[in-house]
Amino acid sequence: MGLLDGIFGGGQKAAGYQKVLTQSDFTKTDHQTLPDITDYATVATYKCPAQMQIAIGFGDDNHPDSAGRLYIFMRTGEATPAEILGKIRILVTNYADTKRFVLYDGDGSILHGDLTDKNKKTVMSERRPMIGQDSYIKIQMMPTVAHVGAGAAADNVGWASITESLLSIPVTVYQ
Known about the structure:
With about 180 residues, the chain is mainly β. It has one domain: Jelly Rolls (Sandwich). It contains one helix and twelve strands. The protein has one helix spanning about 5, and strands spanning about 15-20, 25-30, 30-35, 40-45, 55, 70-75, 85-95, 100-105, 120-125, 125-130, 135-145, 160-175.
């Protein structure tokens, strides 16, 4: 260990701070056409800022009371937004989208118990891998029911709207 390493902490990583990403933090893909019931579509994307590393979630599984809470409620963009039933996937990708790590994959209906009651949200302790500059957190959805998105028989449930949806995704930010 050199003199400068001793002065500056020996290269130890500073402790991260907790943050909650909401729908306003994500690039909006409003009116994203959801595919048929056999494929996922990306409905929201968050790009990691320069000179940061981010891990999804915070806290650890051994202390669930202090761990992050995940809340996702996907809705349509029509005049009276309706819930979109289906599976939701949270993944992290590199810039070129050639490496993908799925951090959550499950039924969307269990992710929106109650926005104000942490005991009714899904526990999301810190997950790896972390992402860095020019990497992404992506929210994908696969509906359970195929819908008509345009025309006379349109029900508009085939269109996801992040503006009408609610996202609360805990992250740990390292600088």
